[in-house]
Fold this sequence. Notes:
The protein is an alpha+beta fold and 180 residues long. It has helices spanning 30-35, 46-61, 73-81, 86-93, 116-128, and strands spanning 23-24, 27-28, 103-107, 131-135. The chain has a two-stranded antiparallel ribbon with strand order 1-2. β3, α5 and β4 form a beta-alpha-beta unit. α3 (73-81) crosses α5. The radius of gyration is 17 Å and the shape is globular.
Amino acid sequence: xxxxxxxxxxxxxxxxxxxxxxxxxxxxxxxxxxxxxxxxxxxxxxxxxxxxxxxxxxxxxxxxxxxxxxxxxxxxxxxxxxxxxxxxxxxxxxxxxxxxxxxxxxxxxxxxxxxxxxxxxxxxxxxxxxxxxxxxxxxxxxxxxxxxxxxxxxxxxxxxxxxxxxxxxxxxxxxxxxxx
Length: 180
C-alpha cells in the first residue's frame, strides 16, 4: 500500500454499528457474528472463518492495540476485522499454510501517519499468518503509537532519507502483477 492511511475514519464500515453486540465478557460472540445479516465472510471456508475468529479473539484478548478494554477500542478492532477488503478476503480464502505465505508490504516515504484501523488491520493480518514488511525510510513512527506493546521487530539500516517517491511494486518488467 502506498498511501497512509489505508483505512480512514470515513471508510464505510457496515459492521461498526453492530460491534458492541459482538463482545460479551471480553469474548467474541462468534455465532452471533456469523448469523448476523451484515456478516460478509459467509463465502469463506468454514474452517477459515473459525480460524479468523480465533485470531480476532487473540487480538482482543492480547490487548495489543492501545485502548482495548479501556476506551472502547475493542469495538473498533471487531468492526475493522469484520470489514476486510474483498481482495484481502480472496487472499485469505486461498491461503495454504504449507505453501506460499501471503505478504503485505507497506511503504511510507512521507510524513503520513497510519490510522488506528490500519494498525488493527496490520496486526490482524499478522496474526492470521501474513508476512508483513514496512519500509519507512524517514524513520518516523507511523504506526507504533497505536500499539500498547511492541508488536513488530524493528530494523534500522543506514541514514534516514526524506521526500522519496516509492517505486511502483505492483507491476513487474513484463507487466504482470506481483502483489495482490
